[in-house]
Design brief:
By secondary structure, this protein is α+β, with helices and mostly antiparallel strands. It is built from one helix and four strands, in the order ββαββ. The chain has a two-stranded antiparallel ribbon with strand order 1-2. It has a two-stranded antiparallel ribbon with strand order 3-4. The longest helix has 12 residues. The radius of gyration is 14 Å and the shape is globular. The termini are far apart.
Amino acid sequence: MTDANAQTDIKLDPENTLLMDLKDGQVVIAMRPDLAPNHVKRIKELVREKFYDGIVFHRVIGGFMAQTGDPTGTGRGGSG
């Protein structure tokens, strides 16, 4: 693990970077269209439609991962 306040030398592509504002800070998500072009395209569409605004993290495993993107908050829904 690294310090959450540590600076990195990663160069982010503004066209493929998402900023997620949470109550405890901001999460930077670097998308990889070279690895998953269709997924990146769909995520960008959903972001423009404000689909993710207000959606909760329905599954969180500390120190490992967090899942979101389900408007029902159950992990069984999706964007359609």
